[in-house]
Design brief:
With 208 residues, the chain is of the alpha/beta class. It is built from six helices and seven strands, in the order E-E-H-H-E-E-H-E-H-E-H-E-H. Bound molecules: guanosine-5'-diphosphate.
Amino acid sequence: MDPLLANPRFVVGAHRIDQLPPDEGTEIAFAGRSNVGKSSAINALMGRRALARISRTPGRTQQLNVFALNDVCRVVDMPGYGFAQVPAAVRRHWDALLERYLRTRRSLRGLILIMDIRHPLTGFDRQMLGWCADADMPVHVLLTKADKLGHGAAGNALLAVRRALAREFPHAGVQLFSARSRAGVEEAREVLLGMLGAGSSVSLMPHL
Ligand code: GDP
């Protein structure tokens, strides 16, 4: 694994934009509805358990959890939720924070959007894709839990999502993923490193 991804360090859980670290360097965000497999995906990509544990601490679910990879690169875990699980007012507040973060954060260079391969392109997913399209932000979709489908069915699901994205959100890439079988982990790491602008040979270069 690229050393850049090997040692993430929790920095802050931000309830508000002004609690985030200074808006410099390079940031990549992970988003996905709750229970979609986001924590497992992040853990598989980083080869660690600490990230997800921190994000799951009660009270930390409704905040942007920021992890530093080095002095200039960060990843941000943006917790989602099932739409039925929270009151409308809380949801609106959280939606507004996510939208503002995605639209205004200058150091944010890409979004990794996690979808359950059996339930892709939910309302939440389309909202995130729309905000990223407006902000000209690269997005890469992980269709996770691919191990739950047979090879052929997973391939068909990938094709269907790829077609829908090409039609509606042509800036977004997509791949199969499984935290369980580890299918697609290397491919996703390459995309993440590409977004960070930090292939292994230049992982410690600042990207300002
Ligand atoms: P989060 O709420 O999006 O962070 O979801 P989690 O990562 O906690 O995963 C939710 C549930 O899905 C857990 O029971 C995981 O074990 C399961 N899960 C996550 N990723 C995979 C996967 O790739 N394959 C399978 N079969 N189950 C998974």
